[in-house]
Structure formats: structure tokens, C-alpha cells
Specification:
Layout lengths: L1 E10 L9 E7 L25 H6 L8 E3 L1 H8 L6 E5 L9 H9 L3 E6 L12 E4 L13 H6 L2 E6 L2 H11 L7 E6 L4 H14 L2 E2 L3 H5 L3
Parallel strand pairs: 2-4, 4-5, 5-6, 6-7, 7-8, 8-9
Antiparallel strand pairs: 1-2, 1-3
Length: 218
Amino acid sequence: MFPVNEVFQTIQGEASYTGTPSVFLRLQGCPVGCPWCDTKHTWHIAPEHAVTISAMLEKQTDAPTYAQMTCQDLVDTVRKFQARHVVITGGEPCSYDLTELTTQLIGLGYSVQIETSGTYPVRVHPRTWVTVSPKIGMPGGLTVLPDALLRANEIKHPVGRERDIDNLRVVLLEANPEALVWLQPLSQSAKATTLCIREATANGWRVSIQTHKFLGVR
């Protein structure tokens, strides 16, 4: 069973799949504790916030409510949408074993992507696109795992100050050398954006802008 905060169709707004119509599966539960997180309502799994699947699918605003769903429930729900790319996010999706779910979706012809902090083992089908956004020194006290970095197809690093670039250089020593590197400015601030552009230019990296926010979609 997976505690699911929401399932919805939108446009992927970040990194390699920017612009791709996608079905987002947002799982509940995350102990990482990033101060800037924009989905803090997904952090805790409280029994009093459990709702039916239909109630979860109908909600239109951010809320800590979630529905317990089986792998088959999720597959059946995804198939109701038109988009053929699935993004499994959270919360922290890798706190769950996603092998069966990703295998079923890929077997049905979907491309599948997960977005993870890299603090849990990545248990997915081999053809899953893995986006690791390494969360270093967060209040939850979890460590970014070398195996998660080696599995990453792309590293999407949140950047707000120079120290974040220094942390990224340390992370890349253990990362998959073939992984694409994206710098994502925190809060879309002008200072962070300038820093990202400068460092991406100097190091052959890329800049990821949260384009869905400019489009006004979820």
C-alpha cells in the first residue's frame, strides 16, 4: 500500500523532461525536512488525514490528506489520463519500494521518472529515469547515499548561495559521471539565478527553471 497525497496531470516543469505532459503521483511522507520545501503538507502520515481514493483525487488545494492505494489502484488511475510520462514524487518516494509499480507502468509503455533526495535506496525498474536532488545537511539528519548518486540519470541541485555549489562539487565525486547536472535557483530569486547561470556556464552544467510556475500550472 502507498499513501498517496495526489494524482494529477500537468506539464513537467524542471530539468530534462521540461515541457513533457506528465501524470504526477505524489506520495505522502518525508523525514528530510528541507526548510524551503513547497510541499510540507506531504511530510507526515497522520491517521486522521486518511481519506478515500475518490476524495483524494477530487481535491484542488494542497492538503495533508492522503489515500492508501495499491499498486494496481495507482496503475488504473494513471491509465485514466492521457499523458504517457509518469513522475513519482513526494514527499520522499524512495522511502517505498517502487520496483513493482515502475515495472508495471513501463510494461504498459509509459516512461517513468522519480524525484528523490537521494537519502534512501532507489528501488525501481532499471529503465526508470532517476532525478536525484541531493539534500545535504537538512534538519532530518539523513545522509545522501552514494548508491543513489550512482543510480542518478540527472542531478538537480537546489542553489541559493555559494555554499550550495561547494556541496555539489563534493556530491559529484560520488555521482554517476554520465549524469546530467542541473542547477535550480531557490525561490527563483535573482541572486540565486545569477549564481546558477555563472556556475553552469563555467562548469558545463545546465540551469533548471521551474517553468510550470511561469505557466501557472501545478
